[in-house]
Amino acid sequence: MSTTFTIHVDGAAIPARPGQTIMEACDAAGLYIPRLCDVEGLAPQGSCRVCTVRDNGRCVSACTQPAMPEAVIEHDTESMNRYRRDLVTMLLHEGNHLCPGCEASGRCELQAMAYRLGITDSNRLPYLQPVRPLDASHPLWVLDTNRCIFCSRCIRASREQDGKNVFEYVGRGIHKRLAVNGNHLADTSAQEGDHAMSDGICPVGCIIRKGEGFSTPIGQRRFDKHLIGEEIENKSGRSDLSTEEAQ
Amino acid sequence: MKKLRLATTSLAGCFGCHMSLLDMDERLIDLLQFIEFDRSPLTDFKTFRQRCDIGLVEGGCCNEENVRVLRAFRENCDLLIAIGQCAIMGGLPVMRNAIMHAEQPLNECLQTAYAPSETVWNPACRIPADAELPLLLDKVYTCAEVVKIDYQIPGCPPSADALWYVLNAAVQGNPLDLPPELIRYD
Ligand code: SF4
Ligand code: SF4
Ligand code: SF4
Hints:
The complex is a heterodimer of chains A (247) and B (186).
Chain A: E1 5-9, E2 12-16, H1 22-28, E3 52-55, E4 58-61, E5 72-74, H2 78-94, H3 109-116, E6 134-135, E7 141-144, H4 153-161, E8 167-170, E9 177-180, E10 207-209, H5 230-236, E11 242-243
Parallel strand pairs in A: 1-5
Antiparallel strand pairs in A: 1-2, 2-11, 3-4, 3-5, 6-7, 7-10, 8-9
Helix pairs in contact in A: 2-3
Chain B: E1 4-10, H1 16-22, H2 27-31, E2 35-37, E3 52-58, E4 61-63, H3 64-76, E5 77-83, H4 85-89, H5 105-114, E6 136-141, H6 143-146, E7 151-153, H7 160-172
Parallel strand pairs in B: 1-2, 1-3, 3-5, 5-7
Antiparallel strand pairs in B: 4-6
């Protein structure tokens, strides 16, 4: 018998079912936890750590951690948000993120996350300014790996949904980078219709479709009008959350 | 009420950020009740008249003159704000850092720009070296790599609304923190 139970997120009682992760329970209740590597339709892997919450005092990734009855979870607090800001800042500094010249600008999840988290502080970290390869071999897509944030979404989509292995990581630590299964993208089995190459898989401007350019005018792009995560917050509305203080 | 003194400058930038300042339109007139311009391309003062409350810096540092001006701003401004992607992360000029890993990065940069090619007519292979020209740095530096920066207003350029928000907050003595809807990196 599957019974629902309650988890307590920042003082709000959230219903959860056995088998749900903390993020799934919060999503269903209209409570958005920031995330970059997790995307609808792919198995979560908890690698970007942007969804980190404190679950009974322990830092865990909300996208992989099962919700447990009566768990006390810290999520939208200054300390957790500072942690998230640091992670997203490091991603922005690790690659080359020249947003004014990037076709993903306005629909990029990394950029939108930085807006949501309010990243404007003066730089404490150096920009690493890597010189990673740009692969324009394929007739349909360009890969600019200087913008890759190592979310593995393309790797998982290719493996899980397309039954291919077009993408993989090579190297370790700071030298880790995205590689393709061949000398160039054009030598791989990547083709039109692949889930890995579809809109919304690459959260940034690393996998770019050729021939589109800056097709959506500024002001009408995905994150021009609303913050990332608002679609989840608006889905079921947070007003119907019962806060324990109110009870 | 004592007016705040404001200085502005454009280093390795395109002046787009200053255009955005002008884009505040009639709000500039409101602002002028509380703010006085010191050294700025808008007043054409080349040196500081007095110590300033706020300095706005557009552009990063690509030559030694940029570094000198930026240091003068730090010395003469209580609050130093980097405005625009060029000042914050190098912007378009920083693309030249992609060749900084080369053996002689500066040479490669100048050769790419001036060596004769399909698009460059320069038979004598001359590279500008007039003593009047500021010396190029080995690479482009962000403002925060050169001096301490107190706040950043991102954007390319930051919108007039974002600039207005921060200047207004400074005048009112409020925290400068931009709300998410005014934060843009493009
Ligand atoms: S991938 Fe995103 S953050 Fe990076 S340059 Fe493009 S828009 Fe900016
Ligand atoms: S290419 Fe895009 S989807 Fe693939 S790992 Fe990099 S950022 Fe993620
Ligand atoms: S940030 Fe943009 S508008 Fe401002 S100086 Fe640089 S290129 Fe020009």
